[in-house]
Amino acid sequence: MNDLLVAVRAIVALAAVLGLLVFLSKRLQKSQSTGTSPFAGLMPKKLTGFARTRAPRPAPVRRARPEKITVVARSGLGGRAQLVVAEFGGIRYVLGVTEQGVSVVDTQEAPVADDESVTARDEAPSAPPDDIVDRALRSVA
Prior knowledge:
Elements: H1 2-34, H2 48-52, E1 70-78, E2 81-88, E3 91-97, E4 102-109, H3 132-140
Antiparallel strand pairs: 1-2, 2-3, 3-4
């Protein structure tokens, strides 16, 4: 008799939980079909006025980043090691990149950009004006 009461109590509790889940899912589906908030269908109509009186939160202000990191050159040293020249804030960084991490090998001020009016035809082909990669390779070797 005692085992029968425990089984009946478990069945009644399970039926109550399943009934509550079915009820909530129907209310949520109805509110979603009308385009309102999913929780608006759960609030009694008398209490919905309280929910609307709260002031909306202001949108976060997104600030544009004025400076960007630019990869100037990249050279493989073998395996998964690389030598990378990156420019940020007017400074060029020579970085040694391996699987274990990134280390700064050398730093140098970035060269000043020439006038844009000079075309490629006017310039004679020459070696790159900044030989930072070769200098960094010599310092590592």
